[in-house]
Amino acid sequence: MRTRQQLVRALIVDIVADVDESTREVILTIHWQGGQHSQLRIRKPRTGEHGCNTSDEALAVIRSMATRWSDQDIAASLNRMGIRTGQGKTWTAHRVSSVRCVRDIYAYKSAEKDGAWLTMSEAAKALGVTHYMIRRLINDKVLPAEQVMPDAPWQIRVSDLRSEAVTAALTRKHRPCRNDGGGQLPMFTEVSQGGAQ
Q1: CA 191 → CA 183, 184, 194, distances in Å?
Q2: Where does a domain end: 64, 83, 112?
Q3: N or C: the chain end with fewer CB closer than 10 Å?
């Protein structure tokens, strides 16, 4: 790296910087040894903008989830999606909270859920079943559920837990096996003992 820096210094005479306000670009004119020159145009950063800003993708997730999910849930979703902070770090509840404060994103408050929406854990507890069963009902299109985007937590309406389709699916799941054998054909037919002698 040091050799490269020395080489660049030997090749470049000077660099002249100018600003084009009409296009909000910084124009760099590089004067090389031998009389040649080249020009480079770079977008001018806005006030307070820097290279470690939170990505638009991360901001979209935070805005979409903030009114229904806690900062901890949002952080877990961002990490599952492989989205990093502006500094390339994994997300924590504190980092999500900091971004919300800077960007004026409305915070989650548990009291404002009004019991209308449930998480998978809350839905499983309400129905007295496992998480696996809730996920199976969602995958089978029996229980309607929403995600603000792929890999985000599922959101389930309380009213949908009482639907006929869900009730019927759970009834089938918990129904004991039948042992009466009614209407079934025997596996082996009786062999007549009275054959010709």
Answers
A1: 21, 19, 9
A2: 112
A3: C
